[in-house]
Amino acid sequence: MMMRSYRSFGERKNYARTILAFLPRISKASLRINEPNLKEKPMSATTTQLTYQDILHMFQETGLQIKETDRLIKRTDHLIKETGLQMQETRQFMQEISREMAERDKKLSKQIGAL
């Protein structure tokens, strides 16, 4: 049996739910960080700050990538099954040819023996 190195859809779904559950907390924390504090230096304009919308957008993109990956996995599984069926048909065909060849060999042996 082939072992898969990717997480199941359910595992990824639960992982995504866990992360999405923390988004409001992340948003509140980022708001607290962005509040001006008199004791701290103001943030420079070059500091990159992720907003709630940025994080949400990244998770949506990740969700789309997960869906695409699942689609590709399902397609690959389908192709593997299809290939397996073709191999089984080929094996059956080869067995039929072997039987026919064995029958012909017997007939030829009888004919040669009769001569």
Outline the structure in words.
The structure is a single chain. By secondary structure, the chain is an all-alpha fold. The protein has one domain. It is rod-shaped and about 95 Å long.
Round the mean pLDDT to the nearest integer and report it: 75
The main pleated sheet reads as: none
Number of strands: 0
How would you name the oligomeric state of the polypeptide chains in this document? single chain
- Put simply, the count of helices is 2
Order of helices and strands: HH
Helicity level: over 70%
- Uncertain residue ranges: 1-6
Structural class: mainly alpha
Characteristic key phrases:
115 residues; 77% helix; disordered N terminus; mainly alpha
Brief synopsis:
The protein has 115 residues and is an all-alpha fold. The protein has two helices and no strands. The two termini are 54 Å apart.
Spell out the blueprint of helices and strands.
Elements: H1 9-34, H2 52-114
Helix pairs in contact: 1-2
